[in-house]
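so my prof wants the structure for this chain in the tokens format not the other one, which i didnt know existed until like an hour ago. anyway here's the sequence
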Amino acid sequence: MDQAARLYKLRGRGTDSNHAGRFERLRREVADDGWAAADAPLPVLRTQTSIERPRSMITYNRSPDLPFDRSINPYRGCEHGCVYCFARPSHAYLGLSPGLDFETQLVARPEAPEVLKRELAAPSYKVAPIAIGTNTDPYQPIEKEHEIVRACLEVLADARHPVAIVTKGSLIERDMDILRDMAAQGLVRVGISVTTLDPKLSRLMEPRAPAPARRLRTIERLAAAGVPVRVMASPMVPALSDPELEAILEAGRDAGAQHASWIMLRLPQEVAGLVEAWLEQHFPDRAARVLARLREMHGGKLYDATWHKRMRGEGPYAEMVAQRFKVAVKRLGLKTSAAPMRCDLFRAPQLPGQQMSLF
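here's what i got, hopefully its the right format
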């Protein structure tokens, strides 16, 4: 049991660790001061949200592993609590723990739509698809209150700007009106991440994300509205969830997904220790096997961040999973690549006080 678990009652959290991030010089230790009664109930650890005023929203990347070169992230941290989330280490830049802080100390950026609109209106801006949900899930629970993603979608829709969304959240169905219209113009595609079809395993790995069956229902509703959907078997956990690869793809296809992709489990920075502890706690009989497979795929390490290797690994095991995926998508009639979204419809947003175009 980690120290954080001795301070709070943890309900629906992906980890019980709150170790300091890699940049912190000091570490917090739990000590009994003698004031609390031995039988006093522990307080429940609640989610807290702070507000950030962003100076910019569009983040650019040059990664050859990614099919996009820009993204926006309305939130920092994610209440879904996926223990394996590769974005956890980003919380260390805020002076917070990639553990429980990542799930409970969230940051919302309510001015994101205005900042995004300003960036799209810049004369130097060159249109290309924007990705949403590449770091933390845009449709995590706090979006229901803040509605930042919806406001960003309204900006993109008004500008007729192409967007790709990745999520586990069923809250995306709230924005079906915007997505339906954008899809009719070839301006949107959505990826729904399905890590497992086992609700018990899902609850352990991603405690506050919608259950697998609920995500499949989201795929069905998006597809019925004409929104192109990709079922993302990601991440595949060796010897734990990867035996379900074909079943996940088939379930996604049956729900209406036209495209499919997969990614192997990634354990950058602090995520490695969190997942190791999680495996020992919940799957002690398979922990050594899972970690051994990861090391086989990454040259003896739990993770290799090298481009072209980090997403799927190398070696016989990685090649076997890749071949299984290839055979399955062919059998199921799924596609791995989609037609390019339209960029020719873009019209720069009109800012207050800005002179309107004559044409």
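also thought this was worth mentioning. Residues 296 and 315 are 7 Å apart (CA to CA).
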